[in-house]
């Protein structure tokens, strides 16, 4: 089969399974809705805070923190794009239709990314503008220092974390096992696992913890309790390395194991 035919086939699979479409809609709804609520709450506190207190508050935290929960449906989407066929058993028929497993795997990744990336961009931009409108007059602007990189980083983060989930699902060959590992890991990580003193030296390098730094949602970096041993774009590079490792691992497992 040609690459075009493989992509058309993968698009058909994604489009005809309602759960995959709903996960993308849920990503948008959770991110934007929670972003509005968090920014509205923090905006009220920020407006009445003393100058000393304001120095410890980062408006971007309220703007993008909702993505820590909004990412979870997108991870489910990535797992279902690859792992759904293992759960239903249709992976055997797919591999019979496309015997070249590298091409088959690449088609899945391209089809998933072609949806995940625009959804990430739309979600991040909508979350930013809705949250900043709810925050009030002190809301961050796209002209402020660090804001453009945070917006771009958020788009890259959501896309890479979805690809990471696709690689993990291919390695584990089961949507249940994949979600059983990824959802608790990402949920606990976003809730502060990377800031626990006893394990921070290791957990700060987990994919979500590294990638979130650029979005200003891991805590102020001038505070030793939250500070990371790397910068924002280095953190994004760490997430990219995790993603590449997961995708390569998935490719090796797909090539070497029977369906």
UniProtKB/TrEMBL annotation:
One Pfam short name: ABC2_membrane_2
Gene Ontology CC annotations of this record: plasma membrane
Keyword Nuclease (UniProt): no
GO molecular function term, any single one: ABC-type transporter activity
Transmembrane spans: 21-39, 59-82, 109-131, 151-172, 179-198, 233-254
Keywords of the record: Membrane, Transmembrane, Transmembrane helix
Protein name (record): ABC transporter
């Amino acid at each position: 089969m040609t690459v075009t035919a493989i992509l058309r086939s993968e698009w058909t699979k994604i489009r005809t399974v309602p759960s995959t479409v709903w996960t993308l809609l849920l990503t948008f709804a959770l991110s934007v809705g929670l972003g509005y609520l968090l920014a509205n709450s923090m905006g009220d506190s920020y407006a009445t805070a003393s100058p000393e207190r304001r120095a410890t508050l980062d408006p971007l935290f309220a703007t993008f923190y909702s993505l820590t929960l909004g990412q979870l449906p997108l991870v489910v989407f990535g797992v279902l794009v690859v792992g759904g066929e293992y759960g239903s058993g249709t992976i055997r028929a797919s591999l019979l239709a496309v015997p070249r497993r590298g091409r088959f795997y690449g088609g899945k990744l391209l089809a998933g990314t072609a949806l995940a990336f625009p959804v990430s961009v739309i979600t991040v931009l909508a979350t930013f503008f809705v949250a900043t409108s709810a925050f009030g007059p002190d809301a961050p602007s796209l002209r402020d220092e660090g804001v453009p990189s945070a917006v771009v980083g958020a788009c890259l983060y959501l896309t890479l974390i979805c690809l990471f989930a696709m690689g993990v699902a291919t390695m584990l060959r089961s949507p249940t096992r994949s979600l059983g590992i990824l959802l608790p890991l990402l949920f606990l990580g976003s809730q502060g696992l990377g800031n626990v003193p006893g394990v921070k030296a290791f957990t700060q390098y987990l994919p979500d913890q590294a990638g979130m730094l650029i979005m200003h949602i891991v805590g102020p970096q001038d505070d030793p309790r939250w500070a990371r041993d790397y910068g924002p774009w280095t953190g994004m590079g760490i997430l990219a390395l995790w993603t590449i490792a997961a995708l390569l691992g998935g490719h090796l497992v797909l090539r070497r194991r029977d369906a």
